[in-house]
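thread: overnight batch results

M.L. [08:02]
morning all. the overnight job finished for the chain we discussed friday. pasting input first so we're all looking at the same thing
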Amino acid sequence: MKHIELYQKLNEAYPPALSAEWDHDGIMVMKDGEQPVCRVLVALDLTADCAKKALLGGFDLILTHHPLLFRPLDALYPKDPLSARALMLYEKGISVFSFHTRLDCAEGGVNDTLATLLGLSEVTSFEVEGLPMGRIGRLPEAKKGSELAEQIKEKLGCPQLTLSLPQKRIERLALLGGSGGGEWKDALLAGADGYLTGEASHHHLLDAGENALCLFAAGHDYTERPVCHTLKAAVEALLPEVRVEIYDQIAISRL
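M.L. [08:03]
and the structure it wrote out:
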């Protein structure tokens, strides 16, 4: 399968119509869409170390959740790290496809992956910014916020998290990976007792707690990195003969 053909197949699974208006995802780099897909690297972020692994490892395609070129470049300048990375990837013929908010919304994407990981049942979507981005479902058994926090840390591999209302009894948990603290009201309106996201401010936590919602902030990257396994499986289903690997390094340290 050619690079452009794989992109078209992934577009069917993760339609551009599900991307938020402010988003910029899709094809980030592609020198030659007619070249065959031989080796694929999947990552949350295309960091300098990720690009180096792709180059040294002989990968011809990188799939990411966060867009490599989210904001317009002011110039193609080799001393700027982002410009240099994009130029190197183009020069070496390494394509980059990013699936951002559409992967949050799509069936089987970021938030469905989280729901499966946490064992939720009766999972449905709820709207965020007019898109079916959030998920809500029932826990296998009701838990106090503090108990569920320990389970979340174990499942996501996060060393710590922040929460409001540790004594709150939670039956229905809402999910929105990434920067979802400001959307706690959407989770509350959907009928949640608890709400898991990646990032939430001090005031988001206070306000959610005052409205009887137990808000968990587990880290932007930790709530989204499980979807890398989903992307890997999607490519392997389309191209079983192609080697697919995950670059699973957390870009931001927590000490």
